[in-house]
Amino acid sequence: MLSRDNLVILGMAVLAAALGGWLQHESRLTQVPAGIAVAQVSEAAPALELPDLQGSVHRLADYRGRRVLLNFWASWCGPCLDELPALDKAQSKFGDQGAIVLGIAMDEPARVGAFLADHPVRFPILLGRVEAPSTSLLWGDRNEVLPYSVLIGADGRVIATHRGPLDAAWLERWLDPHAG
């Protein structure tokens, strides 16, 4: 059994952790312009309609019933480019099981097209809005740092977000249809 002093210390530590989490959450929200709604984990994914390089519009609603990985990247982002082959392999592995990767290029269309001509991928690449508020910001990338990924469940709810590159093991956990 814990002594009274240890219980007080434990209680203060829990309170400090809760306060720290709240302050971190509030500081993230301050980076979002007033009136802008940002996607949140466990909430319904907002509507998304973006063109591909040929001008065809893709809607997130078209993928309802599938696990969707939105991956925000740019041709000038080294870690993004390092991550693309793993994303392509994951799409190849899990695509026939219902998962889909949607690459959201936060870049100029000409640069995206030139890059993909030399490095094709087997998943759709859509053109995100770079101007404020950017598409990545609306999906929770409050610092607008790339790469940034959002996992959406088959039920249309945001399951998780991740800043930085995803490796093969992470992609396996996110895209496996039997994952939680």
Tell me what the structure shows:
The protein has two domains: 1-30; 49-175, Glutaredoxin (3-Layer(aba) Sandwich), CATH 3.40.30. Helices cover 36% and strands 18% of the residues. The protein is built from five helices and seven strands; from the N terminus they run αβββαβαβαββα. It has helices spanning 4-29, 78-94, 109-118, 135-138, 168-175, and strands at residues 49-51, 57-59, 68-73, 100-105, 125-127, 148-152, 158-163. The strands form two sheets. The chain has a five-stranded mixed beta sheet with strand order 5-4-3-6-7, with helices on one face. Strands 1-2 form a two-stranded antiparallel sheet.
Name the descriptors:
alpha/beta, Glutaredoxin, 2 domains, two-stranded antiparallel ribbon, globular
Short description, anyone?
The chain has 180 residues and is of the alpha/beta class. It has helices at residues 4-29, 78-94, 109-118, 135-138, 168-175, and strands at 49-51, 57-59, 68-73, 100-105, 125-127, 148-152, 158-163. It folds into 2 domains: 1-30; 49-175, Glutaredoxin, CATH 3.40.30.10.
